[in-house]
Fold this protein.
Amino acid sequence: MRIRTVDAFTARAYAGNPAAVVLLDGEAPRSFPPDASLQAVAAEMNLAETAFAHPLAEDRGADWALRWFTPTTEVDMCGHATLATAHLLAEDGVLPEGGRVRFRTRSGVLSASREPDSTLTLDFPTATLTEVPVPDGAGEAFGAPVVAAWDTGGLGMLVLEIADEATLRGLTPDLAAVTALPSPAVLLTAAATPPAREAAQGAPYDFVSRMFAPAQGIPEDPVTGSAHTALAPLWSQRLGRGELTGFQISRRTGYVRTTLRGARTLLGGSAVTVLDATLHAPL
């Protein structure tokens, strides 16, 4: 069975967030292999997420079924692995320039469009932000004061604002203490420090972030697409603009373009295929 690795939210290999993708694109109708098999493959790949997708023959609302697994668990939403899946559908000729593909997922129907410049745009639900008290131990877990905190409802992330970009870049969190916080995933963010331009790729950006989910088997996520459904409304309100670019300042780094459209957020980016291989063990 074919499996490919794609670096998402980057225009260059060995950056962005890598996702493994298995397209079960044989003769329809298809179904997913047993959950234990999917989880075993994700554990074997040991990337932040492994995506599995198969075409839907008789679903008028969606074209493909899509699921995502970390090395330890299935998740409800994943941006970078969705971008990676759409990228491979484009490479395979399934998603033409100007076309759109709809995915049936645990978070409803999500779509991906292929732009004229070959970048991809995801259409995701906007997260609901509710400001909450900063949890006890948050500052100690990250070694820096926390300015404010937000719950993200169904997105399942805790958003913490850090004072500035330099502080966020320099954090070395205590992952055991992060696991003890009241959320399995903790998203840190700060405004970009002008002039905001990352040296290696040279693209301008408006805000920065880092995301930690050690309880889900992800010590630090390289680029978290779904997190930007919460970051987009937060920073669009602050900066007074609906279209922004987020820069995730992990070791690998990556860019996510965001466009806030009320209840929906568009997430834009590029992707690069870096590995094309065969799974010899049966699912």
Q: What stands out?
A: The longest strand covers residues 254-261.
